[in-house]
Amino acid sequence: MDCKKDFLEKIVEYLKAGMLFSIKIFAAVSPIAAFFFLGNPESSPSILGEGAPGFLFDLGSAMGEVLPMNAVALALGIAIIGGITGLDGSGFSGVPLVAGLAAALGGPLGYDVATLAALGQVSAIWVGGGCLSAWAFGAVASAGVAGVSSAELVRKNFVPVMSGLIIATIAAVFMM
Asked: Which listed site, 10, 63, 157, 162, has its alpha carbon 20 to 30 Å from 72?
């Protein structure tokens, strides 16, 4: 019956442990999400004020000037950018960005925009949906159920997920 005497202290102790755990897991998400929000021209003005540039779109434009815009380079670029946007742990936050980039880069060059957008979305979701982001909810929840660390789970997922992304990129090149 000691629990009746110190139940409030135990509740506070559990809350502290839970908050510390969540801070450890999600601390890396904040700078990545900030980079994404500052990079999106739709959301950066609400953060930086009117006329703020979209840094990720600027990065895409600079990449377009440097890289040759053939089907292989375009598919690799969209897959890489999709993966980068997936690093926030959500996987879905990058979907509008890669779809916009696919339309902006693939449309004028005559490539199939839907195929490019789908490749970018698959890349963002596979990286950020819990397969390659140790702080993603899917990885944390699955690791908790399995009784392993989320970093170990992501390490085990790396080869199969990257193999799938490579195959998806090759398929997209042929479909474009």
From this structure: 157
